[in-house]
């Protein structure tokens, strides 16, 4: 809508920049979404976008749209901290293909949002710079989800209309679910990870968050190399999708041990979708307990992260987040033989999972099985680790089994916090996952339609 309004002359990129700045200044003391915020840079980018449009240069639908960027991505002239207490070396300012795709459309970057240090955490906490506040609780500081901690918060603050995150075990989908936004996790290798500080190069996937699937689909289309040459065609296909087009598998394992209101909220949404014509069936993904066990003992990330820190940034070990550092000895102790064995076994599990879901278009369940915890309740390492592992239980399946996923907000749980419904598709079927999510949204409504705005929204 903003893109159309700009082309109709009803609004300018400068207007959007000033709105973003005003909303940030009004809410930053409450929400704390950003590590680096430079309003003059935002204004300068708005001026370039407006001048181009005035000269008849229309580079695409994200021209002049404010986008927040997780502070793992290199962005020209912005420092990259990756959640650390000091800036990473200058080479980590290098822009990779994801940022360049947005840059080529003259999108505006509102700033760099907070992340868990080196993205190694599901809850969004950071002892060095503070933890963004989940805008859905006006009384208590609750976790915003991690590791893309500031991404969803920036959207509700009103300082960004799209947010870039990364997802290694759920780090796009968990903050999206916990903040009542939409998150898209791409299939490994579909989007380049060049220009992004790594956690696990094998599993790292860039992704986008937005307040609606329609917005997220637009961001996906601009960035995705497979569809960016025909953005309008892709978006038309997405808009044509109907829930009656899809046979959806419900995986009961994802509903186990959910906090009050989470399973119930997702099931209620599925009842609505089925009434609208969606075909539902029960499905079982084999050996999910084993997948969870691999994740809980470090997955592949532990070995790869330990190697990266030791080989590339060894001096950053001195000031590592204690919640990350407490696991480092175990990470470093994993042998190459252990790692290769896990790689081999995960390949087998992935193939088995893909066979199991071959007769459905997607698998669904709750995105995150726990209520976003209060920060005061996760100060002790044992409590933190329990919540951290449980938060990622459902999302990490897509990462370890080489699938993709989208989360959409569908309910509020027993504590009044957002509930996400996760849509997982076979690896490479990213277009389908986005189309299914959009078809769901047309029945259920967007976050604002269904949940209303959070108490601390801009």
What's this entry about, in short?
With 458 residues, this protein is α/β, with parallel strands linked by helices.
What does this structure look like?
By secondary structure, the protein is α/β, with parallel strands linked by helices. Helices cover 40% and strands 14% of the residues. The protein is built from 18 helices and 11 strands. It has helices at 2-7, 13-31, 39-54, 97-103, 151-157, 173-179, 213-223, 231-240, 262-275, 288-296, 301-312, 322-325, 328-333, 336-356, 381-391, 396-400, 430-444, 447-451, and strands at residues 34-36, 66-70, 108-113, 162-167, 182-185, 205-210, 247-251, 279-283, 362-366, 404-412, 418-425. Strands 1-3-2-4-6-5-10-11-9-7-8 form an 11-stranded mixed sheet, with helices on both faces. Helix 9 links the parallel strand 7 and strand 8 (279-283). Helix 8 (231-240) crosses helix 17. The radius of gyration is 20 Å and the shape is globular. The model has no long low-confidence stretch (mean pLDDT 96).
